[in-house]
Amino acid sequence: MIQNDDLLRMLNLLCPMYMLLDESGVVTHVGPTMQKLRPDEVLEGQRFLDLFDLTRPRCVGAFTDLLAAKGGKLNLSFRTAPRTALKGLIVGMTGGAVVKLSFGISVVEAVRDYHLTSADFSSTDPAIELLYLAEANSVAMEASRQLNLRLQAAKISAEEQAFTDTLTGLKNRRAMEHVLARKAGGGMPYALMHIDLDFFKQVNDTLGHAAGDYVLQQVARVLVEETRREDTVARAGGDEFVIVFDHLTDRPRLQRIARRLIDRLEQPMRFHGQSCRISASIGIAISTEMPDCDPLELLNQADMALYAAKRGGRAGMRFYSRGMDVTEFPTDLAQSRARTG
């Protein structure tokens, strides 16, 4: 077989995935890209039919059978791992044959598995266009994924802002109502604790709104520290807070929590050298004690219990009971609280 340097340079340039075979089917030379598929193996000197399994043509027993295949088209794969599937064309020539191989539609996977680049293919090989298309598609998909991630993050951030009180970092009233709406008809036991700050107006009037904001932030910190991760702590508005206790309906335990909150909030808070003094009144309503009560009505009952606590002398707490009728109190509880501080 003729294997002069000009022929080899031509084959390396035109079809870098080629094999030259002698008249007995032994590999005498391989293209540079073909060798990359088996970098640690010497392919020259091995029989072509020992290297590959053929699925087209079938039942090839000898090299002469392979040369006689109609059209010379081959479908084959390596016998050893990785068993990359290939397509090929064999053409007989004086002293043997030349086999031109390609990856077919699996070119993208082959480029990835064997770390190939465009330099490993003929410049006219359609695989180059496939690689460019695959790369462009990969870039576009990654850009789309990143955009979706940013949009999702922006959506989550917007939802968090919509449900967060900006001053205290607690849930806001909208979030609290959303939590309560999910409990309607759910059958899950829970308790509501409605907290109103005593003497907060005096802090605002005497020390200014900056001091009032500081007090609200400290109150929020105390409420979070005295509750569990699964509880919802919300600023319902102004100096009012609501805590939703999931799966907690035990009166003594709720009473202990309320007493700890009252005791801690009575501690003076220092703001720019000034002492801010407040206290808290708390009303509690328990879902299991009012089984037919929807969450908003239960919140109203906690509100009535809160007003009863304020009437009892502030810095106190009350549980709602059926004997506690709203008609006993002014119809506008907000106006009444404004009058009592």
UniProtKB/TrEMBL annotation:
EC code: 2.7.7.65
Gene Ontology MF: a single term: diguanylate cyclase activity
A Pfam family it matches: GGDEF
Top-level taxon of the source organism: Bacteria
InterPro entries given in the database record: DGC-Regulatory_Protein, GGDEF_dom, HNOB_dom_associated_sf, Nucleotide_cyclase, Rev_trsase/Diguanyl_cyclase
Residue ranges annotated for the GGDEF domain, each copy included: 188-322
This protein's UniProt keywords: Nucleotidyltransferase, Transferase
Keyword Membrane tagged: no
Database matches in SMART domains: GGDEF
Record has DNA-binding as a keyword: no
PANTHER family tied to this protein: DIGUANYLATE CYCLASE DGCT-RELATED, GGDEF DOMAIN-CONTAINING PROTEIN
Name assigned to this protein: GGDEF domain-containing protein
Lineage, uppermost ranks: Bacteria, Pseudomonadati, Pseudomonadota, Alphaproteobacteria, Rhodobacterales
